[in-house]
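PROTEIN DESIGN WORKSHEET
SECTION A - STRUCTURE
LENGTH: 423
TOKENS:
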């Protein structure tokens, strides 16, 4: 239900620092004006229940007058959950702070770097128009790009080949910015890169993640046992001691100072990308709460294993790798660096062999969550009813996958990983 008024309490629900004055400044910024006043604002929910665990997301349409002309701006505003128990359970402040730092410290550097080269179109993120990151009243306000024809990709369905290619090209361009920037301005790159912290796969987060990790390890074990009983892939998977797979991804995420490490998205599953039919070459990336500095393979493997299935890998896996690397290679060259010196095919394939398993391990979480019907997703505010911090395993109450198609989607990832020497 959309509300239409100057309801100050709705603004305060977003953040103590999200005020009518904030909206006035946003209007001036977006419409390049000097004087503005607000006529009204309308709130609407931006996502289906269960699509955002770490933050609250609202859509807001603001109507005002800028320099004597009536104008509108539509915003998507992410903010900390008002439910303190939910905020603490999901460590929302830490995730929000990482995304805030990404937008305030990294994106402006990337924008200037690209602008100086006349290549602004390479950066595919929505425009940030206002933000607060004080740890208590955090919010990020971005222009609502759905009005430009962008639509989210479906959470339940796997990407088809064309959709996957669109996303891989976008990821490659994004990674290329880091390679070229680090090559040309290494000291500056290393300085602003330090603003990003590992928010998910780290030794210090093990106790937070451990029980949930056990649950998804067992779900994967069940899928392999039912669909590939006695197979070499099942035996290999079961040979890992509990915690070993988590430790693998912790190691990969703890390599921010390696020559091939780039600022990466961190959460490359389909709902974090927007596409529009009239422009197949333009995809926008959303939600940088897991942004990190690590090998490009982490994003690449997450997208391929978490968002596509065996029918695509069997025919096109090598093609997808080459397509990603070609796009990366060409974009690095476009930005004035020598890709052969920075990330040649041999280095890329060496990292594929070593680190592509990251996507399979992350998919143990992504696939069961993506298979949930909207009616089965978790209403966190209903589950976490007070200020008490809850173990995430008691909120994300996943169970063994019921459908054979779903079990195969997960099990096939580890069969493919085993057959390709990743597991």
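SECTION B - SEQUENCE
RESIDUE ASSIGNMENT:
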């Amino acid at each position: 239900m959309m509300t239409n008024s100057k309801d100050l309490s709705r603004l305060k629900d977003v953040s103590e620092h999200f005020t009518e004055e904030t909206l006035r400044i946003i209007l001036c910024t977006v419409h390049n004006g000097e004087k503005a006043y607000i006529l009204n604002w309308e709130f609407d929910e931006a996502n289906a229940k269960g699509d955002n665990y770490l933050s609250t997301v609202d859509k807001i349409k603001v109507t005002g007058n800028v320099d004597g002309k009536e104008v509108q701006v539509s915003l998507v505003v992410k903010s900390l959950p008002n439910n303190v128990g939910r905020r603490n359970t999901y460590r929302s402040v830490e995730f929000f702070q990482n995304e805030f730092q990404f937008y305030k410290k990294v994106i402006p550097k990337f924008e200037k770097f690209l602008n100086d080269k006349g290549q602004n179109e390479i950066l595919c993120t929505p425009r940030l128009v206002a933000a607060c990151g004080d740890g208590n009243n955090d919010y990020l306000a971005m222009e609502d790009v759905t009005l430009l024809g962008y639509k989210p990709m479906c959470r339940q369905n796997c990407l088809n080949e064309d959709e996957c290619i669109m996303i891989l090209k976008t990821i490659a361009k994004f990674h290329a910015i880091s390679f070229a920037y680090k090559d040309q301005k290494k000291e500056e790159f290393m300085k602003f890169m330090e603003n990003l912290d590992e928010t998910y796969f780290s030794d210090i987060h093990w106790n937070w993640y451990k029980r949930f990790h056990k649950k998804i390890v067992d779900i994967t074990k069940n899928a392999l046992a039912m669909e590939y009983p006695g197979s070499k892939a099942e035996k290999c998977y079961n040979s890992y001691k509990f915690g070993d797979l988590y430790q693998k991804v912790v190691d990969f995420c703890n390599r921010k100072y390696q020559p091939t490490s780039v600022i990466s998205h961190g959460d490359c599953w389909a709902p974090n990308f927007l596409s529009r039919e009239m422009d197949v070459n333009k995809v926008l990336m959303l939600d940088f709460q897991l942004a990190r500095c690590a090998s490009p393979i982490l994003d690449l493997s997450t997208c391929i294993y978490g968002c596509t299935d065996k029918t695509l890998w069997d025919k096109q896996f090598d093609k997808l790798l080459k397509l990603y690397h070609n796009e990366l290679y060409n974009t690095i060259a476009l930005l004035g660096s020598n890709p052969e010196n920075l990330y040649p095919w041999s280095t890329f394939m060496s990292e594929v062999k070593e680190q592509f398993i990251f996507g399979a391990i992350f998919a143990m979480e992504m696939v069961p969550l993506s298979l949930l019907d909207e009616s089965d997703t978790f209403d966190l505010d209903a589950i976490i009813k007070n200020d008490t911090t809850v173990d995430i395993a008691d909120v994300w109450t996943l169970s063994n996958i019921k459908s054979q198609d779903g079990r195969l989607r997960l099990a096939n990832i580890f069969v493919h990983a085993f057959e390709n020497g990743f597991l």
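SECTION C - NOTES
The longest strand covers residues 56-66.
The chain is about 50% helix and 15% strand.
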